[in-house]
Design a protein that fits this description.
It contains 22 helices and no strands. The longest helix is centred in the middle third of the chain and has 26 residues. It is mainly alpha-helical. Helix 2 runs antiparallel to helix 3, helix 10 packs antiparallel against helix 22 and helix 11 runs parallel beside helix 22. It has two domains: 129 residues, Serine Threonine Protein Phosphatase 5, Tetratricopeptide repeat (Alpha Horseshoe); 297 residues, Alpha/alpha barrel (Glycosyltransferase), CATH 1.50.10.20.
Length: 464
């Protein structure tokens, strides 16, 4: 019944029923294939029937056979010369239809590939077999196709370009309506721009420069107060550290203002080596682990003579017991940035990797579903720590999750779980009250997607 429904759906998509066409198959072979009569198919082929002759509502004979998913008939058709790349009227190939099946048969996919099916062929809408497999969260088929040479490079470029354009549109708008800069709309976005740029993706340099200037316009006027410690900045281990990481990704050189920003961070380090935070805004601004890891990176990139502080922070991170995904990812990043012992990095990586969901993603809490914030952040941490390569199975599964869940506008939606501390401001990023964390999640997704691709030249900043 399911196979008949599948065929019915295809015919309905061609508006065939509205015109009451003649459903009689144009050749005896197509008739036997429609009936899934394997014996008759073999008999006709033995008698000289052409396995590529005519179509049924735009479907080549091999595609009709694939709808029934009978391995023996498909092998027989291919052995007699059926074209493994014959496209239907929409440009979809037999391999796409083999993947489209609700329960894809690996043997059929392998047979098509062995007979020369192009794993990168795309239909008229730009979709490939890999697209269809990813859409169904069929990670085993994704692996099979990639092993045969299927590439998602074009899909990743499109995803990154759309997301970057959206981030660059909403970043300046957030600055305009809020009068300040933020981790979610500026710093993380700047890290995303740096990653995208390093892989040769388009970043509007004018917008990028304007956002750097917006960050400096916030901190430069209070440089002396930061140096003297007479300005009360909120959670500098998070907010100021993120600002420095964003500037690093944009290639901003250290100056008097960044030195003062670093001083405001250093001043908060506790005797045990950690950096404190008021834990009121999960996931980004709610953890000593995050504040300590981010501060390690800020010290490393903009500080001098800070080795002892970094060592104390790394020792604290080593002993920290993460309670959620943010802390697992940040602990791993902090240890990697601090160049901690490999064994400590590997233990933190194993803890994080073990939390990957069957859909390829990670969730912020064990009780929640996967989302782009948790997934992108985890992937970046695992890659930057050297625990995974971009070609690793776990990383590839994460890529499939991100590509599958991106929305047409270029964003990923991430549900907020933070009580509103600041007055809600509309930045133009989608998803209403969820837009700030969704912008952050979109940035992490862009970084993870970008870093899966080869470098396109020297990075502007030192982060990626």
């Amino acid at each position: 019944m399911r196979k008949r429904v599948l065929l019915f759906a295809f015919l309905a998509s061609t508006h065939a029923f509205s015109q009451l066409p003649d459903f009689r198959p144009p050749t005896p072979l197509l008739g036997a294939l429609l009936r899934n009569d394997g014996k008759e198919v073999k008999k006709l082929l033995d008698s000289g029937a052409d396995p590529n002759e005519r179509t049924f509502f735009g479907m080549p004979p091999l595609t009709v056979a694939l709808i029934h998913s009978d391995p023996a008939t498909i092998r027989e058709m291919l052995a007699r010369g059926a074209n493994p790349n014959a496209a239907d009227r929409n440009g979809s190939t037999p391999l796409m239809w083999a993947v489209y099946n609700e329960s894809p048969n690996p043997a059929i996919i392998d047979e098509l590939l062995k007979r020369g099916a192009d794993p990168n062929a795309a239909n008229k809408t730009g979709e490939s077999a890999l697209t269809w497999a990813s859409r169904r969260s069929d990670l085993r088929t994704v692996e099979r196709l990639k092993a045969a040479g299927a590439s998602d490079a074009a899909a990743i470029r499109e995803a990154v370009d759309k997301a970057t354009a959206l981030l660059q549109k909403s970043g300046p708008q957030f600055t305009k309506v809020s009068g300040c800069v933020s981790c979610h709309h500026q710093s993380l976005a700047q890290m995303a721009y740096g990653a995208a740029r390093s892989r040769g993706y388009h970043v509007d340099q004018a917008v990028s420069d304007q956002q750097v200037q917006a960050v400096m316009n916030l901190f430069r006027p209070i440089r002396e107060q930061m140096e003297k410690g007479v300005v009360n900045l909120p959670n500098p281990g998070i907010s100021v550290s993120y600002a420095l990481l964003g500037l690093e990704a944009e290639g901003y050189a250290a100056d008097e203002t960044t030195s003062a920003m670093l001083a405001s961070i250093i001043r908060t380090q506790l005797p045990d080596g950690s950096f404190p935070v008021l834990p009121a805004r999960p996931p980004m601004e709610a953890s000593f682990v995050s504040a300590t890891a981010l501060s390690v990176r800020a010290l490393q990139r903009f500080g001098t003579g800070v080795e002892e502080r970094i060592a104390r922070a790394a020792a604290w991170l080593k002993s920290a017991s993460p309670s959620n995904q943010e802390e697992r990812s940040m602990k791993l990043l902090g240890l990697a940035w601090a160049q901690a012992d490999r064994a400590d990095i590997d233990r933190a990586a194993a803890d994080l990797l073990a939390r990957q969901h069957p859909d390829g993603g990670w969730s912020q809490l064990d009780s929640l579903e996967s989302d782009a914030y948790a997934t992108g952040q985890a992937m970046v941490a695992l890659l930057q720590s050297g625990a995974l390569q971009a070609s690793s199975k776990a990383y590839q599964h994460g890529l499939a999750y991100l590509l599958r869940t991106q929305l047409p506008d270029g964003s990923w939606v991430v549900r907020t779980r933070s009580s509103p501390v600041q007055t809600y401001k509309e930045s133009g990023f989608p998803h209403g009250k969820h837009q700030w964390i969704s912008a952050a999640g979109t940035s992490w997704a862009v970084i993870a997607l970008s870093l899966s691709q080869p470098k396109a030249g020297p990075a502007v900043g030192g982060m990626f």
